[in-house]
Write a structure and sequence with these properties.
With 272 residues, the protein is of the alpha/beta class. The protein contains nine helices and eight strands. It has an eight-stranded mixed β-sheet, with helices on both faces. The longest helix has 24 residues.
Length: 272
């Protein structure tokens, strides 16, 4: 059987890199996508994978990434939208959007949208790295997605992680009948540098000596690898949200179909 093509964003470090290693070891053709040229190349070379660069704070980078993927790969069997992070003070990107929301939601929304015809042809799995933060911190206001009237780093991150789940649900609703499978997952509290740039109290957990007591990137990547490899119906179904290979506890808003549809409509406008 020909190897699958697996695209993993945010794969230059942390759970993305760990998932890339595991999937390449299993025989998949992995495309490592990251922002840092040095780190992205190092991960790719260590596993014999391809690599591409993209900074998700710039939507033009996302458009170029999608164009390159379409040019180089006749199939994309798995798209793991893993890039993201917890930011510091409110910052606007060159595209005019709040940085947390753009990097964690708008950029993967745009990448997925641009790749959709290829993903449908490939009957692909699309996996979003969400977080329990969607339940702990979110207060998503569809009228203020760029957090212009009120901003707090933890809430912005929670809102973006809720958006990941809502995007998953709407992907499933729109495209599952055409062969797309869409899932989201919580990787656990993982020892990575994703909160390094934040002033949030969560930085103390993720970025200091306390991280020796939390999960390794490999353990955090386990659910991603499972969703990328296990047959649908063997513990997971399209449209679901998972943690530790089991259905995860969700917020009430995560199941709001009307909110998912409206978020899709607004996201289309924001990346146009």
């Amino acid at each position: 059987m020909a190897s699958r093509t697996v695209v993993i964003t945010g794969a230059s470090d942390g759970i993305g890199a760990a998932a890339a290693r595991a999937l390449a070891a299993g025989g998949d053709r992995v495309v490592v996508v990251g922002r840092s040229p040095e780190k992205t190349r190092a991960v790719a070379e260590s596993i014999g994978a391809d690599h591409l660069l993209a900074d998700f704070s710039r939507l033009d980078d996302v458009r170029e990434l999608a164009s390159t993927l379409l040019d180089r790969y006749p199939a994309v069997d798995v798209l793991a939208n893993n890039a993201g992070g917890l930011m510091g003070d409110r910052t606007e990107t060159v595209d005019g959007h709040e940085l947390t929301f753009q990097v964690n939601h708008l950029a993967p929304f745009l990448l997925t949208s641009l790749l959709l015809p290829r993903l449908i042809e490939s009957r692909a799995r699309i996996i979003q790295t969400s977080s329990v933060a969607h339940r702990l911190y979110s207060a998503l206001d569809l009228a203020d997605l760029d957090a212009r009237t009120s901003y707090r780093a933890e809430r912005a991150y929670g809102n973006a992680k809720l958006a990941n789940i809502l995007f998953t649900r709407e992907l499933h609703r729109r495209f599952h009948a055409q062969g797309i499978s869409a899932t989201a997952f919580h990787p656990g509290v993982v020892a990575t540098g994703f909160a390094r740039g934040s002033k949030s109290g969560l930085r103390l957990l993720y970025g200091t000596v306390l991280n020796r007591f939390i999960a390794s990137p490999a353990k955090g990547a386990d659910t991603l690898v499972w969703l990328a490899t296990a047959p649908e119906g063997e513990g997971w179904t399209s449209g679901g949200y998972y943690a530790r290979r089991k259905p995860g506890k969700e917020s009430k808003d995560a199941g709001d179909a009307a909110k998912a549809a409206e978020l899709w409509r607004l996201s289309e406008q924001m990346v146009a």
